[in-house]
Design a protein that fits this description.
alpha/beta, Rossmann fold, Alpha-Beta Plaits, nine-stranded mixed sheet, globular, binds magnesium ion
Length: 244
């Protein structure tokens, strides 16, 4: 097996402030053990920047795809990412930051290649947050897209997603030749589910919601119970798979 794991809502519960998320040492050890058993074929595939992934998993340097695939670190530690944003993007970021300053409860996360606007602390501002981000698209030109998530809306480079990140890993050691398992909880993970489905792998959705994943597990705790059992196929209910 090769494992592709999302972080928020999959390995950790959501927090109002994403930068406050931590992973207990025992759980970090469990991940390291899984990686050892899988010959290093465990990658983190998150909307977070890789620097943030490393903060949550200190000292591990897992292969990782950050910002929904906009940046990637392979198993050999080689790092790649989309081109750095230009001046139009900086102006858009400043515009969003100014709007956020006028709306307490909104939180702008600048991830260098992408921006996330979190409204977890102010759910009533959901509509405003989505309108604000959508309104920036014409200013950014082509090559950008809006990515929805759980109480977050993001602007990110188009043409990169979690599924493409999985494909890139699967063409490299130590992932190639293994059966991919992708576990995630949010709409951005659907790209990963579709990819592992097409590769004959195992797609696992955490929690409720329509999905292309084959298996559903209840919550973060169920993911860890599965990891503790050694990462064999998760016990979960078969989903009524949404057609892709
Ligand atoms: Mg997630």
């Amino acid at each position: 097996m090769a494992y592709f794991l999302d972080i928020d809502g999959t390995l950790v519960e959501f927090r109002d402030t994403p930068s406050r998320v931590h992973l207990a040492a025992a759980r970090r050890r469990a991940l390291a053990k899984l990686s050892q058993r899988a010959g290093g074929a465990v990658a983190i595939v998150s909307g977070r920047a890789i620097a943030e992934i490393d903060r949550i998993l200190p000292g591990t340097h897992f292969p990782a795809a950050g910002q929904h695939g906009a940046e990637r670190r392979d198993a050999a530690g080689r790092y790649s990412r989309v081109a750095m944003p230009g001046s139009a993007v900086v102006r858009v970021r400043d515009r969003i930051a100014a709007a956020v300053a006028r709306h307490p409860g909104l939180l702008l996360e600048d991830k260098s290649c992408s921006f996330a606007l979190h409204y977890r602390r102010a759910p009533r501002l959901a509509g405003y947050a989505h309108r604000l981000m959508r309104a920036q698209l014409p200013r950014l030109g082509s090559g950008w897209m809006v990515q929805r998530g759980k109480r977050v809306v993001e602007l990110k480079p188009a043409g990169r997603d979690k599924g493409m990140a999985v494909l890139a890993f699967m063409s490299e050691e130590p992932f190639c030749g293994r059966t991919p398992v992708f576990i995630g909880d949010d709409v951005t993970d659907e790209f990963g589910f579709a990819t592992v489905n097409s590769l004959g792998g195992v797609s696992v959705k955490v929690g409720a919601g329509a999905t292309a994943a084959a298996i559903r597990v209840r919550d973060v705790r169920a993911v860890w119970e599965w990891l503790a059992r050694g990462g064999a196929l998760p016990q979960g209910t078969r989903t009524r798979r949404r057609s892709a």
